[in-house]
Amino acid sequence: MKKVFTLLLTAALLLSILAVPAGASADVDSPPPYNDIGHLSEETQAAIEWLYYMNMMLGTGEGKFSPNNLFTRSMFVTMMARLENSYYNEPDMRIDEDSYDGPTGFSDVPQGRWDAPYVKWAAENGIVNGVGNGRFNPTGIITTEQFAAIVGRYLNHLGLTLSWSADGYEGWYPEIYDLFDVSEYANDYVIDLLGAGILLCEAGDSNAYVHPKHQLTRAEIAVMFADLYQLICTQFDYGISKDMPWGTVETVIH
């Protein structure tokens, strides 16, 4: 995989268009103020630090990133909204909270709640569908298959298609041993994102367990989101390369 750190050169250009939480800022001349990520893999640390510099995913306070904390559905939809705003260069194409100030369509995300504009945006653009009975379940923990479905629908929303190959075999992907556990709505998205090298999995030489119901941690979200962000925002024409057990995966989007 191309090191995420190589993308820090683009940080200064993109910081001006990213949604920054109130009171938060990232100084690209200083290391991230986290004292609880040193035990993580090099790839995970790189992803966490890059997202910090891009103001896409900050810490939890008091020098902590809290890599093992779980990530809610609303938190992830908010990150997708920030991704939307960083994708478009024209200000009038970005999400304006005021333009999504209204009923969200979900009984558990009332108008005026902090995440309401982002949930409303995602619902109106077909990126999220809720969990049934008019509910979104904003505090529910996002799972692997939910991550895949939301990302897949987001790519559809942008009119983009993933294209990837492994060892020169276009369209080939490893056998997913627990594919029968994947919900029908997420099936195709899980296959696509796994084959593209974006979805984390338990992998062998030619097979993988995706653990579709697994509840994702902040560290896991950071790794997958950094790859996705790199692919969409900074590697549109060139793609990304990742060494997987079943071969080097080359991924681009069209």
Question: Separation of termini?
Answer: 20 Å
How many helices? The count is 7
Q: Give the overall pLDDT as a whole number.
A: 83
Strand order of the largest sheet: 2-1-7-6
Derived structural class: alpha+beta
Query: What is the global morphology?
Result: globular
- The portion of residues assigned to helices is 25-40%
State Rg.
Answer: 18 Å
Which regions contain 5 or more consecutive residues with pLDDT less than 50? 1-25
Please trace the helix and strand order, writing H or E for each element. Answer: HHHHHEEEHEEHEE
For this entry, give a set of tags.
disordered N terminus, 32% helix, globular, 3-stranded mixed β-sheet, 254 residues, alpha+beta, 7 helices, 4-stranded antiparallel β-sheet
Task: Outline the secondary-structure elements.
Layout: H1 11-14, H2 42-53, H3 73-87, H4 116-124, H5 144-158, E1 162-166, E2 169-170, E3 175-176, H6 187-195, E4 202-203, E5 207-209, H7 218-234, E6 240-244, E7 247-253
Parallel strand pairs: 3-5
Antiparallel strand pairs: 1-2, 1-7, 4-5, 6-7
Task: Put the structure in a nutshell.
The chain has about 250 residues and is α+β, with helices and mostly antiparallel strands.
How would you describe what is shown here?
There is one protein chain. The protein is an alpha+beta fold and 254 residues long. The protein has a domain at 141-253. 32% of the residues lie in helices and 10% in strands. It is built from seven helices and seven strands. The chain has helices at 11-14, 42-53, 73-87, 116-124, 144-158, 187-195, 218-234; strands at 162-166, 169-170, 175-176, 202-203, 207-209, 240-244, 247-253. The strands form two sheets. Strands 2-1-7-6 form a four-stranded antiparallel beta sheet, with helices on one face. A hairpin with a 3-residue loop joins strand 4 (202-203) and strand 5 (207-209). The two termini are 20 Å apart.
